[in-house]
Structure formats: C-alpha cells, structure tokens
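hi! just following up on the protien thing from before. the input was this:
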Amino acid sequence: MTNLIPMARTPQLARVRTVAQDAMRGARWWTLLDLERTLRADTEFWRDLWAPSLSIAAHKVGLAGARARLDEAIAAGFHQTDLFEPELTAAFGRDPDWAQVLERARANVPAPPLRLTAWPEPGPAAPLRLDRAEPHREPQLLSRLPRPAAGAWQTARELLAWTSALWRHANARINAGDAVDVLEQVANGARYSCVEYAIVLAQGLNALRIPARRVSLRRGDYHDGVGQGHAAAEAWIDDLDRWVLLDGQHGAYWVDEEGRALGLPELQARGRPARPVHVGPRAGIQDPALWSAYFAHASVSGAAWAPEGYVPVFQDGQVLPTERLLREAGGAYPRLSDLGVAVAALDGEAAVRISPAHPYAVGGVWNGEAIEAGPGPHAAERRFTRALDRAPGEHRAELAALTPYGPLTARELRWTAA
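and the predicted 3d structure came back as:
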C-alpha cells in the first residue's frame, strides 16, 4: 500500500491520523477498525484514504461485509484504487463483480478543473547579448541623449540622425567601448571611425530601452586587403516587430521595394542592393552596390554565423573572436515580442505569469488591458500575472509584453474549465 501521511488541521486530528497511519503500517487491523467512527469525521480523507484502508483491515480480520466501505467510497467518487494495490485485489479480486467495481472506480476520475490547451513559446535562439553602457555610466549617457519619442521606431530614427551629426568621420579609434567616453572626446573636437558611431548608437538605444547591439560587417574576402570591414548597429523595433540595421556613420537604414525597414539577414539574402534611407545631415551612401558588399559576412554582439565556414582572421591578421559560432543567422535573431508562460498561484487561484523575451518589458497585457501590479510584497511579479477564469467552458486570451513604448505583438493562450 502506498505510504500516505496527510497533513492535519488540528493537533487532535493529527494524532488520530498518526495512530491510524501507524496501524496501517504495522498491520494492526483492529486498532485501525477501532478508529472508524473518528476517521469517518475526517471528511478530507475519509473517501480517498480511510474507507479503502478500513475495507482492507476488515477483510484481514475476517469481518463480514468488508467491502462495504470500499463500495461506499466508490459511490462517493473514490478512484485511486492503484494506491491500495496489491492489497485490494488480494482482498476482493475473487468477487464475481470485481472487474465492474474497478470500472466504476475508473469512471469516477473527474475532468480536470483547468486545462491549458494552447500557449505561446519563445523560438529557439542563442543567448541575447546587447551592447549596453555600464550600469553606473548609463545615467550619464542618458542625460546626453535626445528625449525619446512616443514610438520605438521614431525614437530610433531620431537617435540615428543625432548620432550621425555628432562629428565628421575619421579613421581614428578611441580604443574604448564606452559611449560616454566617445561623447566626451567628441565634445573636445575628436573625430572617430564607424566603430565609435556604432558604440554611441547601440548604447544610446539601450539607454532609451530599445534593445540594440553592434554589428561588424565584412566584405567577401575580408581576410586580405584593405577597407574590408564596416561597423553599424541593429535594434529590435517594438512597433515594427523586427530587427533593423542602422548605420550610425551615414545616418541610414535600408528598405525593400515596399519601403519596409530591413534587418541584416534580409539584406544578406537579397539578390540586389536595397535602397538606403538617410535621416542624418549627410547622405553618405552614394553607391548602394558598394556598401551592400559589406553584407557578405557579419557578426553581432555575442554571435557570428557562417553557413560555408568561418574565417576567424581579418585583413591585418587580427583574430575575429566570437562568443558563439552559428551556421545560420536565424539563431542570432530572437523575436523579442515572443513570450513564454509560467503557471503560478495568485491569491490562491491558478494563474499565468507572462515571461517576456524583451529585455526591457515593464509589464504584461491581457486582452488589450495592462495587468495591474496590485499591492503586496510581490507587486513587481503581479505586473506579469493574471488569474485564469474558472467559469465552465472554453476560454481564450491574447497575451503581450508591455515595454516603455507600448504593447508588443500579442500571442494566444487557450484553456478550458470544468
């Protein structure tokens, strides 16, 4: 018999349960039977524990009608006969109706009170590493940036234009990956390369809560020659639901024939150059085909991909390290509007907690309404948690992450309640 030790609500009931449990373990059947009147008052466990146990005890001592307690339990909804095997079958298996008894017990299994039937899952991707300023430096950077616009795409475009206007390109390098350092030196008259534009743009976007990282672009045979590389940034744009490549040096991004802003994998897959759109003061990309050649090979903060084999050496012999090497670009591009769900308890009720893929999510959205945090010590978690409707029937909800720029693309959750 499976060992079951239920928790008691009162000390008196706890003592009775302990005595009964010990009697079951020690095969002291009369002791267990003597407790029957008291155990019947234990409504929490009478049907599922004590009634079948007493049937076994009555059979063991040879009492007539030993099975009556088991039949009573089954009539009340008992179905866990497997927990009392092989004792039940040893006691009553020769009864001519035993097969029907077991069938009645199996039919007692109720429908689950809740069942989640469809839920969102994030797609597979390599760990996301953004290019952010150090936490203690980010407030200094934020104080130097233009104020964000209402939408993520407008904010990104304005920051792109602002970055490209900070200085005129030069081949000097600051040899530091900090946007505040770059801006301080630029304020003193310094001029830098495409790398420093990418640093300021990527770290500035992250300070404005737009996920961004640096991109290293390389021409076809980048292991030899000169001018084989270029640096840019890319950002996840909430209101476009996509990654977009942004060139801080030229104040440009690229669009397809329908005017849709493009990400790097799309630019790599094109058979012809895309059209650059300039938002800065200088239209620096005069020859789209020349600059499209830099899309041949690329890596981003944290990952590189090379379907035909990775060449880890650049034109001057320097090693091109990468934290994670992939075969295809898709693994480096998580869809940041994705979300997962966790099951949680909220005020004693079954609930779903949204787990956004977006690193700057500030809350969740349930059927178009922001989830309120509510009071209590776990208020932050409540911004992502909503209790499930227990009304009988089928239910559906649209879930989304909420960022400083608004709700992201919704995902569907479905469940049934009995």
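The chain has three domains: 11-110, 115-123+336-417, 138-332.
The mean pLDDT is 93.
cheers
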